[in-house]
Structure formats: C-alpha cells, structure tokens
UniProtKB/TrEMBL annotation:
Keywords: CBS domain. Residues 11-69, 86-139 form the CBS domain. It holds the Pfam family CBS. The keyword Cell membrane does not apply. The keyword Endoplasmic reticulum does not apply. PANTHER family: CBS DOMAIN-CONTAINING PROTEIN (PTHR43080:SF2), CBS DOMAIN-CONTAINING PROTEIN CBSX3, MITOCHONDRIAL (PTHR43080). This is CBS domain-containing protein. The lineage of its organism: Bacteria, Pseudomonadati, Bacteroidota, Flavobacteriia, Flavobacteriales. SUPFAM superfamilies: CBS-domain pair. Gene3D superfamilies: CBS-domain.
Length: 139
C-alpha cells in the first residue's frame, strides 16, 4: 500500500451541491436520486456547510415507504431551512492531503465525509466508503 497516496486519487470531483436557497425536499430528492449520504452546501465555489442524509432523518421520516407520510415530510421540511439543519463547523482537507491523513481524521471524528478544499474552493469530497473501497482494492 502506498503511504503517500494523495486523497485526490480517490476523492469524488463531480460533487453534487446545495445552496442556502434550496429547500430540504430538494436535498432529500438529491440524496435518493444519486444514492449519496452527504451534500456540501456552497455559496459560489466556497463551502459553507455539509448536509447529511442522517441530518434529514433526525427531523423527518425521510426513509419511510408509506406514501401518506410524504405529506408529513413536506410539512416538517417547511419548518426548517438547509442552514438550520446543516453542519457548519467543518473540517476540510486539501487535495494533496494523504489518504492516511484523511483516514486518521475520519476515524477520530463523528462524521463520515470531508470536503476537499484548495485555495478556498470546493474541489471534491471524500467519504468513509471511498476509503473502504480503496482499502479493498489493495487486497
């Protein structure tokens, strides 16, 4: 296993993002349509927060299968904004951070995704799933 492999080798660069003007229904739709669990919230190219699917589950019934509960989700979503639900105090890394450095951060924190930021611009995202898949490829 290469010890100095940069995170840029495994990060997602085609990042799906949200803006503060988006609503939580849009966020839920993006999570489900793209089968992802983390979406950076941006203002231009600058990341200002991170919304996770778990954040939505905390305030709603977003994973329900009963069609009648969709109305409940809508009501709950209209009570909150993305800014109120998103994580604001973010930890980020640069694209030349090593995979090992990123793994160490994620192993010690209570979140499962890190934004990759170069020159104050969001350039990617890496998740614990990306790290696991990298590890699997090593065997």
């Amino acid at each position: 296993m290469k010890k100095r492999t940069p995170i840029s080798a495994i990060m997602t660069t085609n990042v799906i993002t949200l803006n503060l003007t988006d609503n939580l229904e849009t966020a839920e739709s993006l999570f489900k349509k793209n089968k992802i669990r983390h979406i950076p919230v941006v203002s231009g190219d600058h990341i200002i927060g991170m919304l996770s699917y778990t954040d939505l589950l905390r305030i709603s019934f977003a994973d329900s299968v009963n069609e009648d509960e969709q109305d409940v989700d809508t009501v709950v979503y209209n009570m909150f904004t993305i800014e109120q639900v998103m994580a604001k105090n973010l930890v980020s890394v640069t694209s030349n951070s090593t995979i090992k450095e990123v793994a160490e951060i994620l192993s010690k924190k209570e979140f499962h995704a890190l934004p990759i930021v170069d020159d104050n611009k969001l350039v990617g995202i890496v998740t614990t799933t990306d790290l696991i898949n990298f590890l699997i490829e090593q065997f």
